[in-house]
Amino acid sequence: MTISLNHPLIKKSQSLIALFLLCLFISLLSDKFMTSANLWNVLRQISVNVCISVGMTLVVLMAGIDLSVGSVLGFTAAVCAGLLKNGLAFESMDLFVGFTVLGAILVSVLIGLVLGLFNGWVITKFSIPPFVATLAMLTIARGLTMLYTEGIPISNLGTAFEFIGSGWMLGIPVPVWISIFMVLIVVFLTKKTTFGRYIYAIGGNEKAAFLSGININKIKLAVYGIAGMMAAVGGVLVTSRLNSAQPNAGTSYELDSIAAVVIGGTSLSGGIGTVTGTVIGAVIIGVLNNGLVLLDVSPFWQQVVKGFVILLAVIIDKMNQKNK
Amino acid sequence: MKKKYIYILAFLIIAILGYNSVYFKKLSDIKKTQKESFDFKAFADSIYYKGILKSKKTIALTDLITSIKTNQEAAFTKHGNRLGIGNSAYFMIKSTGKIIDIKDGIYTIADEKNGVVFIDTKYIFGNDLRDASGLVKLTDFKTNAQFNKVSESLNEIVRNEIPKQTKNVKIGDSISFSGAIKLNKKQTLFTDLLIIPSQIKLQ
Asked: Any transmembrane segments, and where (chain B) (predicted)?
């Protein structure tokens, strides 16, 4: 029995096959790649991108884009670290409000949600293209981060907080558990809820979705809100891993997340794609990054290679759409 | 009826999360505890008298400028100190010159090799001295407020010391001085530099 390259199973598993071939290729060239320490390290590293990318998947499924996730990550990470370390002081009331790890995380996720909702509000209320609206938020959030941190890292956040990014639970790194949890939530949203079906419907044909009675603005608002929240979760992971919030944290993370979404098979024109595909896309990016480092490729060439991989993924996506 | 239970459940969850998220204290108590636990004045004294004044890392202003013009990146790495990111860094420098003007605590100095520079002996604020010294690390302090408190104490020492050192100084005198300056990588001109002094000596 022979299976052609156009077989639906092959087409459906394109990203997985690409990941397998990539792993095979790198393991042939580097004996360090297939060690458990390295593989856990790769998973720990990609957990941030996974969190951001699953949020981005919902946005792209709706034929949108969110360029602000990296900056939102940076800002929420800084706020989380700032609250944890300095709390809030109200001189006039002689009051100090301290934050526990849980409190700081909740506030930063809430801020991520608010910034995401703001993106959604601008996009729906003023009919501004998502590219422009989120580009503006990219600059706003980065500026806010610089103002909040004064360009100085906020460090020494305590061992309890550090555990989130560096700890292990049941033999698996904590960030991996968190990213799995986030993925499961978004998979549930997309597969098992009407909200998920509305996202696909809007991405497939916005006009038809509107005419069939879907409240498009409400769904868009929620999706951008979720993307902001996911970025904030990524921010918590980055900060806890370093035990420090860096003012430039998250710079260009939006590109890695868009790359993961596209490589994972989600169509930039919306309506087609899966969260699991995005996870595979994020793993491909992570493995590629790790492999290029292990193979001692210059960081500049790494960027070139990554760019070509994204380009290849988009071309394959276009060709698939044409064939349909 | 079902909605009522959902609201009650949501309220309970929010209440439990809120209770475990924040804690309240008197700000005055916090400040008192911080004061008791760390003597900032003693720490700043030691940084100033044993660190800054005796530092061998203080570079002659002329050498610094030459070094920056030769290899900016290397000069910033070797002689500069900075806490965060960005193009600016702080440097501890020394030089000599003649006072050509004194106005509102700002000495205008005709530096022998570097043209006109200014020394601010009155408005000594900010983190220039702390950061230029490279002796105080952010990670040594629990909060940013404590870290900034070091600057306050250090500036206070300088505000007290400089008037003693410049008691008999007048226009026309030659002085040697050391202090902190902030330079930017995009800076191409090194004239009109403003120095926050750590020491001024009549020659």
From this structure: 6-24
Q: Which domain holds residue A303?
A: 31-317
Rounded to the nearest 10 degrees, the angle between the axes of helix A275-294 and helix A299-323 is 150
Q: Is B181 helix (H, G, I), strand (E, B) or coil?
A: strand
Residue A252, CA distances (Å) to A168, A213, A268, B189 in order: 28, 37, 19, 33
**For residues B99 and B174, what is the distance between their CA atoms, to the nearest angstrom?**
6
Angle at A17 between CA A187 and CA A19, to 5 degrees: 75
What sign does the dihedral B160-B161-B163-B168 (CA atoms) show?
positive
Structure tokens at B174: 């030659």
Contact between chains at B24 and A86 (C-beta distance less than 8 A): no
Tokens of residue A24, six digits: 């095979």
Structure tokens at A55: 């949020």
Contacts with A151 from chain B: Cβ below 8 Å: 83-86
* Strand bridging mode B106-111 / A154-155: unpaired
| Separation CA B187–CA B84 (nearest Å) | 18
Asked if the interface predicted TM-score (ipTM) of this complex is over 0.90, the answer is no
Asked if the C-beta of B188 comes within 8 angstroms of chain A's C-beta atoms, the answer is no
- Backbone CA torsion sign across A261, A263, A269, A274: negative
* CA distance from start to end of chain B: 89
To the question of domain B38-202 being in CATH 2.40.50.420, the answer is yes
Nearest Cβ partner of A106 from B17, B28, B143? B17
Per-residue pLDDT tens, chain A, 324 aa: give them: 555 656 677 767 788 888 999 999 999 999 889 999 999 999 999 999 999 999 999 999 999 999 999 999 999 999 999 999 889 999 888 999 999 999 999 999 999 999 999 999 999 999 999 999 999 999 999 999 999 988 888 887 888 999 999 899 999 999 999 999 999 999 999 999 999 999 999 999 999 999 999 999 999 999 999 999 999 999 999 999 988 899 999 998 999 999 999 989 898 889 999 999 999 999 999 999 999 989 888 888 888 988 888 888 888 877 877 776
Residue A152 to residue B21, Cβ atoms within 8 A: no
**Interacting residues of B67 by C-beta distance below 8 A, sequence separation 6+:** B59, B74, B75, B78, B79
Beta-carbon separation of B145 and A86 below 8 A: yes
Assess contact for A247 and A78: CB atoms under 8 A: yes
Cβ-contact B34, B28 below 8 angstroms: no
Distance CA A319, CA A323 (A): 6
Residue pointed to by tokens 């951001």: A52
How far is it, in rounded angstroms, from Cα B167 to Cα B58? 24
